[in-house]
Amino acid sequence: MSEATSDYGRGIDAEQALKYAIQHVAGERAEIVEGVITPVSPTWSHESAADEIREQIYAKVRELNCRIGSGDLDLPGSANWYIPDLAVVPRDVAKSAGSLLPDQTLLVVEVTSPSNAETDRVVKRRRYAEYGAPLYLLVDRQERSTTLFSEPGPLGYTRVEGPHPFGTPLPLPAPFDLVLETGEL
After folding, report:
1. pTM
2. Rounded Cα gap, residues 182 and 167, in angstroms
3. pLDDT tens track of the chain, all 185 residues?
4. CATH fold of 42-180, please?
5. Which long-range contacts (CB under 8 A, 24 or more apart) does 48-54 make?
6. Where are the domains of the chain?
């Protein structure tokens, strides 16, 4: 084996290489879920559900001096790189270059699609808790329900509100202190 071949791969951080590739080489928006690269291409009905939530929380987000968007969330030490449907982050944090960490958010929202529903229900719920996202709102379009997870820890969220059928008002706790209307999701 030549010297060049024998040194191949030494000193390369596989996690960082994979996450770099997703950001710079993939050519489209994609996330990594448990090491699997998944394109992010939501439908209009999916986007409509996310936008309904955005409209309802927009005034409070501005009052809190925050931003709302769907920027990248890194989960360091894992083969995960998420693009949530919505995340609320403090304005100064949102201005930072690159990805953010789940514990830098105030709220993360995932809207299920037939292709990713189990990932949002199980894997992302577990990982968002593990990485400290304080509130995780799951809008489950297949089950036609909403569930709010809070009080994250290494073993998952310790508080769960729901699932509530669409149409049931869903209170968001501090710092939001508002009630989401879910009939139009």
Report:
1. 0.88
2. 5
3. 444 444 555 666 778 877 777 776 656 778 888 888 888 878 899 999 999 999 999 999 999 999 999 989 999 999 899 999 999 999 999 988 678 999 999 999 999 999 889 999 999 999 999 999 999 999 999 999 999 999 999 899 999 999 999 999 999 999 999 999 999 99
4. tt1808, chain A (3.90.1570)
5. 49/111, 49/139, 49/141, 49/185, 50/85, 50/86, 50/109, 50/111, 50/139, 52/184, 52/185, 53/86, 53/109, 53/137, 53/139, 53/180, 53/185, 54/86
6. 42-180
